Structures
1.
Amino acid sequence: MITLYEYPKCTTCRKGRKFLEENDVEFQAHDMVKVPPSEETLKEIISKSDREIDDFFNKRGKKFKELDLKNRLSAMSDEEKIETLSGDGMLIRRPLAYDGQQVLLGFKADDWQKAFLG
């Protein structure tokens, strides 16, 4: 089962949701702003991805800029980064789709097609 971590007001998240719905792909939606993924969940997702922890930050977001994370990330430990991400869903790049094996960050139709439709 795919878990779609989303912010319902986000246009890109809506595109990801629409893609899954139109292709009859079963998924469970999770509002990552109301309830951000736990540190344990994030550790699992990051470990299954081929990405760096920094890639999981929504670097274009208002919150990222407010917290001056652009200048602070390099000095933070992985634990601090995960703790920061799990503390505020607005800091996580979205949508984030995870099926237990594959991790997709952001929405690119080609990537989602390969991952979820074979």
Note: Residues 11-22 form the longest helix (12 residues).
2.
Amino acid sequence: MGYDTAAKTDPESVVPEEFGGMWFLKDELGTEELGLSILELEPDGKGKEHDETQTDQEEIYYVVEGEIDVDLTDREETVTLDSDEAIRLDPEESRQLHNRGDERAKLVLVGAPL
């Protein structure tokens, strides 16, 4: 088949519902070199601080709803993204997502190569 489809709810969330949710769609879509995830964070919710130096994967975060802070922890700098804004991060950039707003935030996360 020349295409695959998936819904956010096809895989189990790797984040407890009380914090929002995170769904990895790579396996459901059968991708080999591209990762796609949906992340939802409740107010004051945080993602895991990390970098991608071991995987050499650059990532793009696109905010669908809400506002999100991308804390660039090694730089001690924060980039705030509103709905319809995106950021691309080099693999070695240490980052942590934080929803400091009053509404649930929803993001699409893309990473390659895997």
Note: The helical segments are 26-29.
